[in-house]
Amino acid sequence: MALVNLSENKYRIKKCAAIHDFSGYGKCSLAVVIPIMNACCVQTASVPTAVFSNHTAFPEYYAHDLTEHMMPIAKTWEKLNLKVDAVYTGFLGSLEQIQIVSDIIDMFTEENRKDKIVFVDPVMGDNGVLYKTYTNEMADGVKSLCEKADIISPNMTEASRILGIEYNEGPYTPEYVESVLKGLLGLGVKCAVLTGVRYNDEEIGAAAMGTDGKMFTAFAKRFPGFFQGTGDVFASVMLGQLLSGKSIEESLEKAVSFTGKAISNTVESGFNPLEGVIFEPELKTLSTM
Questions:
Q1: Are 137 and 106 in contact (CB under 8 A)?
Q2: What is the C-alpha to C-alpha distance for residues 77 and 143, in angstroms, rounded to an integer?
Q3: What mean pLDDT comes out for the span 46-67?
Q4: What ranges make up the beta strands (E) of 24-168?
Q5: pLDDT tens digits for 36-48?
Q6: How far apart are CA 204 and CA 217, in angstroms?
Q7: Alpha carbon 124 to chain centroid distance?
Q8: Is the pLDDT of residue 61 over 50?
Q9: Could you tell me what percent of the chain has a pLDDT over 70?
């Protein structure tokens, strides 16, 4: 099952509006999205939500909010009749930003909606807890954003909050994962992707389900510790492959494999996982042309 159809022209480049923050130091958000999308032969059009000196997992950071600039950027594109094939959102910093993103989605998908992909990565929390910047109102807003999406990619913390179910830290059974995916499909999306799926302590990966109800899974070796930015890496590869015409199953397998290799590179090199993962050597594996 593929969500998009490519033109017969080999060099028909898809364009994606990526609405994310930018960290000057640390591999996450736009610093990850842009190179991965480009490697997938997808042109990235960025709407930055904020600029950070370094990502917020560091003990100190400087931040400059760009909320007031987001809609003027989008409206300028609209005036210039600039088109995109997909809208991709990640971490959002306020209820106002969530509403602006909802409006931008409407703006750029109103024309030829069936040919567009809206991909929402509902970045809200981890390990059963919402991030300290997230209020209940914001979490409800992200759920509404998910309802406008074609594809969503929550982890189990985020899926539990969206569905209003008790958080389960795992390991999981296939039946449990399937039930969560079906719940997410109930939001009206075409494809639900669940990250952080594990059936044992040796492997971790993701599961996906389309409207046909068929579940796909993919796994890689599990390493102890927390690796910054891997959610952005996974989601960017998944969407980049889908935009290139790959099926859900193929895109899931590539995203898990790519992310797993990046984590392995990081562990083997002794690189500080707080700074992100070493994904750059794997970019050459993403081109679909």
A1: no
A2: 27
A3: 96
A4: 42-52, 63-65, 86-89, 117-120, 125-126, 129-130, 151-152
A5: 999 999 999 999 9
A6: 10
A7: 12
A8: yes
A9: 96
Question: For all residues of the chain together, what is the average pLDDT?
Answer: 94
Laid out side by side, the sheet with 42-52 consists of 63-65, 42-52, 14-23, 86-89, 117-120, 151-152, 191-197, 203-210, 215-221
User: Residue written as tokens 């930018």?
Assistant: 22
d(CA 175, CA 177): 6
Long-range contacts of 91-95 (CB under 8 A, 24+ apart): 91/20, 91/21, 91/29, 91/49, 91/123, 92/19, 92/49, 92/123, 92/138, 92/142, 93/21, 93/49, 93/50, 93/65, 93/67, 93/133, 94/67, 94/138, 95/135, 95/137, 95/138, 95/141
The secondary structure of residue 160, as a DSSP letter, is: H
Instruction: Output the CA torsion sign for 61, 232, 22, 99.
Output: negative
Output helix, strand, coil percentages for the chain, rounded to the nearest 5.
40, 20, 40
pLDDT at 111: 86
Q: Contact, 208 vs 197, CB < 8 A?
A: no
The pLDDT-based confidence of 113 (bands split at 50, 70, 90) is confident
Query: What is d(CA 24, CA 246) in angstroms, rounded to the nearest whole number?
Result: 32
What is the rounded distance in angstroms from the CA atom of residue 109 to the CA atom of residue 127?
A: 34
The DSSP string of 4-34 is ----SSTT--EEEEEEEEEESSSS-THHHHH
C-alpha to C-alpha distances, 73 to 69, 104, 143, 174, 251, nearest whole angstrom: 6, 10, 25, 43, 30
DSSP bridge pairs for 193: 208
Structure token pair of residue 55: 């990502």
Q: What would the two tokens of residue 279 be? A: 């994904």
* Cβ neighbours around 265 below 10 Å, total: 16
Residue 21 and residue 51 in contact, taking contact as beta carbons nearer than 8 Å:
yes
* Helix residue spans in 203-247 (DSSP H): 230-243
DSSP letter at 275 equals: G
Predicted local distance difference test score (pLDDT) of residue 289: 59
